[in-house]
Design brief:
The complex is a heterodimer. By secondary structure, chain A is mainly β. Chain A is built from no helices and 9 strands. Chain B is an all-beta fold. Classes of the chains: A mainly beta, B mainly beta. Chains A and B meet through strand 3, strand 7 and strand 8 of A and strand 5, strand 9 and strand 10 of B.
């Protein structure tokens, strides 16, 4: 129900933009998780645009209409990972299809 | 600090059941729900359901209803997820994750266990 692009490529220091599309997603709140190979997911954005403690300021989020967006400004090599959006819908956690971010 | 520590890897035969544990520490166990999420190799995240750690109430994703049971033992701050009638498609890493309801009355999963690999093979 939440669709993400399979992959996004970005050069170091540039901005990576990851989208998450779903019907009336802007009427709900979106979260984003980062998952590096062999590791558990980590919450990086909640309630559309809030950062948990310890998450760098280069991670930001927005949500409007049918699309939520995760933006990584000044992308670093260590940001290379899979990213998943998530929304709360009909008392269910719904995850996006996931986006692999490659830092070239 | 908040920690969720899961039990070790399991190998099961088709038709069997598996029970995975998730021991919480660093916070008041009854104050947060525990969710279970699984991930098959190379695939995305799939939510299975949640457990109200205080009341014991549960809500399961439709796909798993009838096959999954989530329970807890509050005296040892541990949640459990049991999946029955296993088939090869259930081979995956199973995560527990703490659900946190923010001021906007919408939850996120703010802490995750390390994952438990469940392999189903004859």
């Amino acid at each position: 129900e939440l669709t993400q692009p399979p992959s996004v490529s970005v050069s170091p220091g540039q901005t990576a933009t990851i989208t998450c599309s779903g019907d009336k997603l802007g009427d709900k709140f979106a979260c984003w998780y980062q998952q590096k190979p062999g590791q558990s997911p980590v919450l990086v954005i909640y309630e559309d645009s809030k950062r948990p403690s310890g998450i760098p300021e280069r991670f930001s989020g927005s949500n409007s209409g049918n699309t939520a967006t995760l933006t990584i400004s000044g992308t670093q090599a260590l940001d290379e990972a899979d990213y998943y959006c998530q929304a709360w819908d009909s008392s269910n956690y719904v995850f996006g299809t996931g986006t692999k971010v490659t830092v070239l | 600090q908040v920690q969720l520590v899961q039990s070790g890897a399991e190998v099961k035969k088709p038709g069997a059941s598996v029970k995975v544990s998730c021991k919480a520490s660093g916070y008041t166990f009854k104050s947060y729900e525990i969710n279970w999420v699984r991930q098959a190799a190379g695939q995305g995240l799939e939510w299975m359901g949640w457990l109200n750690s205080n009341s014991g109430n549960t809500d399961y994703a439709q796909k798993f209803q009838g096959r999954v049971t989530m329970t807890r033992n509050t005296s040892i701050s541990t949640a459990y997820m049991e999946l029955s009638s296993l088939r090869s498609e259930d081979t995956a890493v199973y995560y527990c994750a703490r659900g946190n309801w923010g001021v906007a009355a919408t939850p996120s999963l703010d802490y995750w266990g390390q994952g438990t690999l469940v392999a189903v093979s004859s």
